[in-house]
Design goal:
mainly alpha; single chain
Length: about 110
């Protein structure tokens, strides 16, 4: 037996070629989002949710910077305030998105 695979047969002129529809990728995304909401423990790929979380973390970062500036001054207060703002903003926005995911699931 030969190691060379057989040649690919040519396509017939009247044979239709399969075309992908634009609904296929969105259906895959919808299935992933549904599984992410139902099962959890996977990254959230919704652009809207990620935008809300980024805005929330940024707002808490600025608030943390301001509080740190007035509390302990430069540079330790600002750095600690920024860190606290990022952590609190991420936790709070993550909790809100978790509740919204549970509401979407039901």
């Amino acid at each position: 037996m030969s190691e060379i695979p057989p040649p690919i047969p040519p396509k017939l002129p009247n044979e239709p070629t399969p075309q992908k529809t634009s609904a296929e990728p969105s259906m895959a995304g919808a299935k992933y989002d549904r599984i992410a909401d139902t099962v959890g423990l996977v990254p959230n790929l919704r652009k809207k949710d990620n935008l809300y979380q980024a805005i929330c973390v940024l707002v808490f970062l600025v608030i943390g910077l301001a509080v740190g500036w007035f509390w302990a001054g430069w540079p330790n207060g600002i750095l600690l305030g920024a860190l606290a703002g990022i952590v609190l903003g991420g936790l709070l926005s993550g909790f809100v998105l978790m509740v919204l995911g549970l509401v979407r699931k039901s």
